[in-house]
Amino acid sequence: MIPALLTLLGAQLAGETLTRATGLPLPGPVLGMLILIAGFAVFPGLVAIVRPLAQGILGNLSLLFVPAGTGVVGHLGTLAGYGPALAVVLVVSTVLAIGAGALAFTAVAKLMKMEPEA
Amino acid sequence: MTDFAEIWSYLARGPLLWLTATLVAYAVGDACFRAAGRKPWANPVLIAVALLAGLLWLTDTPYPTYFEGAQFVHFLLGPATVALALPLWDNLPHVRRAALPLLAALVTGSVVAAASAVAIARAFGITGEVLASLAPKSATAPVALGISERLGGSPTLTAVLVILTGIIGAICTTPLLNALGIRDWRARGFATGVAAHGIGTARAFQVHPVAGAFAGLGMGLNAVLTAFVAPLVLRLFQ
């Protein structure tokens, strides 16, 4: 537990420090994730150390959105004002993104003559 | 004997009450989600947020007071983002085999998600903080909040938009991809994860295990790409 926690926090700390130091447009934890993947490649033993804690956190990922989501109480005015427009934005952009992404995958897979996994 | 009002005013000021309330609200939301047969519209986060918002309103508690307790949960978003390295690592052989189609789907999905959202919002006259809060809405919440903050958006508004995007994606993806005639589980899952992050990924796992693994991969990769795409798209439309 402690080595796993140290690994995650250490990677996050390294990510935060590096993004601040270099001015990269990445959030610190995202760079921390890339650093951890590099860590897995260099020290394959790390994967087994991190796995139980990482699976525990990721298995309850939804819970972590609740405090920020509750911040909606401060935005009820915004949501009421822009409600219908925001609904159209979210539905149309999400449908377009899923459709375009899936079509791009199948188009390139077909070009490369890859067998579909259906 | 101390009366209830005194006990309440003591508890309402400390973190214990609101931390506990956050976990209780989520437990209730999760129970509803299971009872509804894990249907995407019965999202546990949405239920928990509605319960807590109602409770804060009833008890006249300001959000910063609530957040003093809830911050212990909120803090874990950072380590959770780092932990996404694990599913990405596990799927690395898949990534190597289908690298080019995955890259095409990732870039297309990520750019279309951010650009269409910002363009349509702009057409409706949405600008400033709300527009910046929309740009990263397809990325997984911990990452989207970080991007939104950097772009001058509101992280709490982004949190709500991210959750709604996930729910919309989870509801739409199966009928949409059936209508488009796309049968490859990798394409279906990956596109869903890119556009609808963890909530879409949870939905993909219900449909097919390969779709689920690729959705998790799409979510993780788009978390990285959105950090670059969202600021560019926003600059283009501002």
Describe this structure in words.
The complex is a heterodimer of chains A (118) and B (238). By secondary structure, chain A is mainly alpha-helical. Chain A has 2 domains: 1-59; 69-118, no CATH class. Helix content of chain A is 78%, strand content 0%. Chain A is built from 5 helices and no strands. Chain A has helices at residues 2-22, 28-42, 45-59, 66-70, 76-111. The longest helix of chain A has 36 residues, at 76-111. The model of chain A has no long low-confidence stretch (mean pLDDT 89). Chain B has 238 residues and is mainly α. Chain B has 2 domains: 4-75, no CATH class; 82-237, no CATH class. Helix content of chain B is 83%, strand content 0%. Chain B is built from 13 helices and no strands. In chain B, helix 2 packs across helix 3 (44-58), helix 2 (15-35) crosses helix 4 and helix 8 crosses helix 12. Chain B is globular. The relative contact order of chain B is 0.12. The mean pLDDT of chain B is 88. Classes of the chains: A mainly alpha (118), B mainly alpha (238). At the A-B interface, helix 1, helix 2, helix 3, helix 4 and helix 5 of A face helix 2, helix 3, helix 4, helix 5 and helix 6 of B. Chain A: This is CidA/LrgA family protein. Chain A: Its main location: membrane. Chain A: It holds the Pfam family LrgA. Chain A: Keywords: Cell membrane, Membrane, Transmembrane, Transmembrane helix. Chain A: It is a multi-pass membrane protein. Chain B: Keywords: Membrane, Transmembrane, Transmembrane helix.
